[in-house]
Amino acid sequence: MRAWEFTSLDQCVSYYQDQMQDGWCNATWDKILCWPPSPPDTVGRLPCPPLKGVDPSQVAQRKCTSAGHWEGRTLAEGLAGGWTNYTPCLIPEIRILMDKLYAKSKEDAQLKLQVAEVSRVIETVGLSLSLASILVSLAIFSYFRSLRNNRTKMHFNLFVAMVIQLMVRLTLYIDQYITRKTQQRTTGIDNTPVLCEGVYVLMEYARTAMFLWMFLEGHYLNSMLTVAVFTDHPNYMVYNLLGWGLPVVMTAVWAAVTAVQHTGTECWWGYNLSPYFWILEGPRLTVIITNFLFLLNILRVLITKLQASVSSETQQAKKAVRAAIVLLPLLGITNSLQMVHSPLEGNIVEFAAWSFVTTFLTAFQGFFVALLYCFLNQEVRNAIAKSLANLSTQRLLPKRSKRVLVNGNVASETVVVPEEPLTVIRQQVVTETTTEEGASAGGREAVKGEMTTTV
Fold first, then answer.
1. Rounded to two decimals, what is the model's pTM?
2. Residue 307: exposed, middle, or buried by beta-carbon count in 10 A (0-12, 13-18, 19+)?
């Protein structure tokens, strides 16, 4: 068996039982590797395990003292079975991260890890809510033809990119929870070569597409308010090439470079910490900066228009702030917080504040976008209200007799109409009324406006 395939101390000791000698350090299992018995005053070396953030080409070390005991960094560690030096196993990016994490003390590092676990729970809840909200929004945009305008087409593509990214991310989180919580090495996406890398490539492609569609949203809004260069029939072929085609090229270049250069660990673990990740992060940051400039220009135009109105200064300020808050999620400026390195070397309060704020804003971004641009959108609300009113009207109007075919003969199905007055219908309708006897010319005219019907 290989050293990382053992799952318990008993299994490790039993495997090396025949090699035990008096005065030697006993076989031991440090929950990662099984170390064979070693003579005094020697340093044991084993290949690093194929784990995330670990370079399998390096070696881990463990020292056996002259007294025949495994050496520990402290007396307590020595009595508990010694200490293994896995520092050489870590890839450079993870080594820097761990140095920052344990810069103060082990207790401080444990608290920060607990904060990270809570943040992952918040992130999972936010991503799930965002996914559900965006799926409902897509269904609404697809169902109502009245909503198929230029703005909603842009929203639709942005929402599709968000859905792909959210589904992949949630799938990875669920897979990681299953594979990492079990004691034995369980096969899943997280530890399957090629499949794992492919899933991460798909996620980064969807995220890049999301940024590109955010850019197109910002450019469209800026042009509509300031330049007015868009026609009634924009060239969506160009939009699709930019929104879906350009991310393919960008992601392919990044994946090729990462596959060649970032080969020291399983499943490209820690790829987001490597300098090659800026092949994607650079253009994304450019999109964020550009959208921020778009936002400033849009606010300038909005404030200028508001100053020309009769509103008070307080109302002008409120509207400008409200417009900024509405635009922030859609244009993706909140994603800039993810590009800021976490303050691991700071105190626990700073790290917790940064972790919770960035997690909340990024995880719930899809929910806020769906809320502001679908559920609270006046066009969407009007379309839904009109559809519900039409359904109510169809239920309330008297039903005509139906003719059905029974055994080859036409039979009449009589529908009984209740004698209670119908509910007052408040909407614009056009109806043609007829009567069986004494029909007048005025009764055949189209009636428009609010009408009260009783039977």
1. 0.74
2. exposed
